[in-house]
Amino acid sequence: MTKESEVEKWLDKLYLREFEDVQSQNLSGGTKRRLSVAISVIGGSKLILLDEPSSGMDLTSKYKLWDILKELKKERVIILTTHYMDEADYLGDRIAIMGEGKIRCCGSNL
What we know:
CATH superfamily: P-loop containing nucleotide triphosphate hydrolases
Number of domains: 1
Strand content: 15-25%
Low-confidence stretches: none
Number of strands: 4
Oligomer: single chain
CATH topology: Rossmann fold
Number of helices: 4
Radius of gyration: 15 Å
Largest sheet: 2 strands, parallel
Structural class: alpha+beta
Strand order of the largest sheet: 1-2
Helix content: 40-55%
């Protein structure tokens, strides 16, 4: 896949097509998050680090992003931080809870 075709794919997949000619500084917070996810997956990295990827998104965008991340994790390792337990439950195979900068527990959501 060419670089251009991969960019096109992620513009469509993350609903960014209407913003392709807009500078990132002029995007809303949720749209910036989607752009950040697109940037992180372009190039085929096998490890992706995401810091609160759905923060600032409306519910519809958040759930669409979750579905995309769930699909991506079949072929890549994704490490993400979140304050939302429902997001961790939906996306996480393993969840670590942190408190005061230290991991307090790690395992399944159960």
